[in-house]
Each structure stands twice: as C-alpha cells, then as structure tokens.
Amino acid sequence: MDGNGRWAKQRGLERTEGHIAGVEAVRRALKAAATEGVEYLTLYTFSTENWGRPKEEVDGIMELFCKSVIAETPELKAQGVRAKIMGDRRALSEKVNHYIDRIESETAEGTRLTLIFAMNYSSRHELTESIRTMAERVAEGKLSPAEINADTISQSLYSSEYPDPDLIIRTGGEYRLSNFLLWQAAYSELYFTPTLWPDFDKDSFREAIEAYGNRERRYGLVEPK
Ligand code: IPE
Ligand code: MG
C-alpha cells in the first residue's frame, strides 16, 4: 500500500492524513477482494524499516491501526472476515498488541476471507528468525539438517498457515518488493500501478485481477499449470 505520503503532499496535507485516506482504500480493497472471491488478502501495513520514519508519523500509523480496529471490527465480523497479524509483535507496543489480540479473537470465526496485516514485518527479518530457530533446534538435536526443505521452511515462517500469494499488487509507481514476502513470492504474479494507494478503488482492483487473469503461470514448466 504505497503512496499515502505523496497523496497527502499533493493536497498540502500532513503525511498522516494520507494514511487516514489509506484506511478508506483498505475498506474498498477488502470489499472488492471479497466480491472477486479472493480468500486471502495481505496488506503490507508497517515494515521493520518504517520505524526509521519521524516518530510523529510512526505514532500516527499505530494510533490509526488501533482506532481502525475499534471502528471496523463489527463490519469485518458481519462480512465473515477473519483478521490476522503477521510479523514480529515483540517490538509493537502493549497497546497495539492489545488491539491485535482483540481484532484476531473477535473475528476468529470468519470464513469468507482472511485479511492479514503485515505489521513490523519484513521478509529478511522473518527468514532470519526462522533460520535462527531452526539452527537452535538442530543444535539441541531436535531437528536433523536433512529435514530442512522448502516445505519445512515455509512452515517455519509467519505465513505458515497461509498459501503463497497468487498476485502481488504494488501501488505508488515503484517497481520493487521492498522486503515483502520474498520467499512466498517465488511464483507470484507481480502487478505494478502508478495509482497512489488512497486512490486505489474497486475499478483499480478489478484491473489488477483482470491482468492476473491474462497471465500464464508455468512454474518453470513448458505448459501452464
Ligand atoms: C504508505 O505509503 C506506506 C505505509 C503504510 C507505511 P507511504 O507512506 O510510503 O507513501 P509515500 O511513498 O511517502 O508516498
Ligand atoms: Mg512509500
């Protein structure tokens, strides 16, 4: 979800205003995803690198998350959405952790769509944690190096219970993954759009899904799978 800051700047607003407008876009994207039959929607909400932004902006994003949990949970429940958080929760404040527990437990029964917020997430951090844990288990004699394979690695990541993404959409005009789901994206289709996240609407979502529909996924083989 990139482009909130630029969206705000274009309007002479504070960056935080862009993040507030971004929440509106989340609401729209979620609705569009559910309509399209998407079962898992993962939102790159806050990266481990985002801590380096001005404190005021970081605090604003965290506060916005907590407020949005209160405001949106009833609608998520009504829509059958199960919300989950993916990332290293240790560096998140007690208050944010409280709201994470709250949104996860209150929406636990949702079966229509799983909405995953990547919070204090980065792929290298996720992989580093996973490799350290596996190394410890090997050192303790609980894991044999021969048991380490692509499946066991996938199962050791924050995303263990979710399928790999079919489609990754990046808004805001940059052509990079910025430390997002690097392992999981091995065969994901990538879609880049110059549209700034607060302007991303249901038609933008539809266009991305249509582009995905025209891709031929071969997974290294000769024929589409
Ligand atoms: C949203 O966009 C990213 C986060 C949710 C932290 P940015 O805040 O990166 O917006 P730009 O790139 O400055 O426009
Ligand atoms: Mg950005």
Question: What attributes does this structure have?
Answer:
single chain, 225 residues, alpha/beta, Undecaprenyl pyrophosphate synthetase, three-stranded parallel beta sheet, two-stranded parallel sheet, 5 strands, globular, binds 3-methylbut-3-enyl trihydrogen diphosphate, binds magnesium ion
Task: Characterize the structure shown.
The protein is 44% helix and 14% strand. By secondary structure, the protein is α/β, with parallel strands linked by helices. The protein has one domain (4-121, 164-213): Decaprenyl diphosphate synthase-like (Undecaprenyl pyrophosphate synthetase), CATH 3.40.1180.10. The strands form 2 sheets. Strands 1-3-2 form a 3-stranded parallel sheet, with helices on both faces. Strand 2, helix 4 (94-106) and strand 3 (113-121) form a beta-alpha-beta unit. The radius of gyration is 18 Å and the shape is globular. The structure holds 3-methylbut-3-enyl trihydrogen diphosphate and magnesium ion.
The number of domains: 1
Structural class: alpha/beta
At CATH level 2, the architecture is: 3-Layer(aba) Sandwich
The H/E string reads HHEHEHEHHEEH
Q: Main β-sheet, in a few words?
A: 3 strands, parallel
* 3D shape: globular
What is the CA–CA distance across the termini?
29 Å
**Which homologous superfamily in CATH is the superfamily?**
Decaprenyl diphosphate synthase-like
The name of the CATH topology is: Undecaprenyl pyrophosphate synthetase
Strand order of the largest sheet: 1-3-2
Question: What small-molecule ligands were found?
Answer: 3-methylbut-3-enyl trihydrogen diphosphate, magnesium ion
How much of the sequence lies in strands comes to 5-15%
